[in-house]
Amino acid sequence: MGEVTAPMGGKIIDVKVKVGDKVNDGDEVVILEAMKMELPIVAGDSGTVKEVKCKKGDAVEADAVLIVIG
Length: 70
Known about the structure:
By secondary structure, this protein is mostly beta strands. It has no helices and eight strands. It starts with a strand and ends with a strand.
């Protein structure tokens, strides 16, 4: 299983996937706002989204697990 983590602390402004979605390595899965910039967070693995651990508006810490891909 692969995990998509936040590269830095910030606020989730969009979650582009839901449980059951198929994703490929490099697909955008979450948009994070940090330091007044929008940062696209991409999947590091191909597979199916098993768990979404964040939602729009959440504040997250660096290295927090956002998406689990199996």
